[in-house]
Amino acid sequence: MVRNNKETGITQTLAAFASNVNYEDLSPDVVDWAKYLCLDFAGVTLNGSTTDSAKTVVKALEDVGRSGPSAVIGTDKRVLPEYAALANGTAFHSIEMDDINNEASLHPGVVAFPTALAMADITQVSGKEFISAVVTGYDVIVRLGRALKPKEHYGRGFHPTGTCGAFGAAAVSARLLGLKGDSYTHALGIAGSQAAGSMEYLAQGAWTKRLHPGWSAHSGIWAALLARAGYTGPTTILEGRDGFLTAYSGDPDPSLVLKDLGDEYQVTRTGVKPHACCRYNQGPIDCLLDVKQNHDFQPMDVEEVKIGMLSGGMGLVAQPEEAKRNPTSVVDMQFSMPFAAAVALTYGKASLDEYALGVPDRPEVRHIMDRVQCVTDPELDALYPRHFPTWAEIRTKDGRTMRSELTYPKGDPENPVTWDEMRDKFNLLSAPVISGQRQQEIMTAIDNLEQLDDVRQLASLLSTE
């Protein structure tokens, strides 16, 4: 365990740790998790590159002539590194199938991987350096997210992936630039003035949430570049009177930043999503699918659906009730528990095919959405945010009541998607963009990631040049 003393603040202690993690410090399990999540990054980003939101970012870059050496995943475009990170982070986050850390309630991979990949065009990055930088980024992002306390951070209107992500991107970039000591700490200090991400996207189903990790990656890269050039930032950006923790949370717990530092790498506490929607919907969908698979009823037989929700997620996917029962955009659908319940019970899945315009207007889907009730449960909240337990109860018109409950949704570290299932997810998501041969080449490269001399080889495989 790494400890800070009375003379060294939280920011400096975290910076010292993050700048000195070596590949040799990582256990085989940590390396395996990093490669597993890298494959998730590849598949989700390739598919996300086909969304209108991702294409719009690329068009904006083309409109201002931002050409450069870095690959924009899923395209034949190359732009400046910081803009590749912007585009790839946005694509990765666009289909809501990116990885998730429960305790921090954020998506660390959408920042860490695009940043590390882009940095390979600023300084040569080997596979081992790539892995150690990504692992470091996960640690910084997650540690800040859990210290803010998700419910408190959401309560102030912030999206933790965007806010904490800027620090994670700075941590990844600074270590790949070889920064140490004060320079590394300054990079975090500079990133603190770029930590942004408003939850107001929920009001109108806007695309801005998808931009948050991309902008964080862009900001973190520039924070590190400025620090390398001699620019200074506050060395108490995390714990200071006007620092990140106090400004962005009503009840932060600074001790959680350094808790178990060096003993438990947060990449191993990060899960993946089987379903194409918000993390708070994943467990309830699992419960509903369990009921559907074990009982005989039709969608129109459903009289009531009751979902046990974590209070931290109510404002994201369950409230306001009228809006959540009437999604009008894909973003609205991704953040609607009533819609998730309806497609799960109607189609037996909640994949990208279901999250499409027109689906909420189908009679069976509309019938169930109108009958979904989301309720909080103190017994569930007692395990939050370390775990995301849930339950679902269905009552049919003939008087039957069916229930399912779980502590660990599929994809959590305690109930993981297997490597074979991850390869299936990658192949399914990437198939619309690349050939079967290219899929195999990418999987082979990631399987042997630590052996790559230059991760630009992986970046090239992820492009369509």
Describe this structure in words.
There is one protein chain. It contains 23 helices and 8 strands. It is an alpha+beta fold. The strands form 3 sheets. The protein has a 4-stranded mixed β-sheet with strand order 6-5-7-8. It has a two-stranded antiparallel sheet with strand order 1-2. It is globular. The N and C termini lie far apart (about 45 Å). The mean pLDDT is about 95.
Which key terms come to mind for this protein?
8% strand, alpha+beta, four-stranded mixed sheet, 465 residues
End-to-end span in angstroms? 45 Å
Biggest β-sheet: count, sense, barrel?
4 strands, mixed
Widest sheet: strand order?
6-5-7-8
Poorly predicted spans: none
Structural class: alpha+beta
Quick overview:
This protein has 465 residues and is α+β, with helices and mostly antiparallel strands. The protein has helices at 10-20, 28-48, 52-63, 81-93, 109-119, 127-148, 150-155, 160-176, 181-191, 201-204, 208-229, 244-248, 255-258, 279-294, 311-317, 321-324, 330-334, 337-347, 363-369, 378-381, 419-430, 436-447, 456-461; strands spanning 67-71, 78-79, 100-101, 270-271, 302-309, 372-376, 390-396, 401-406.
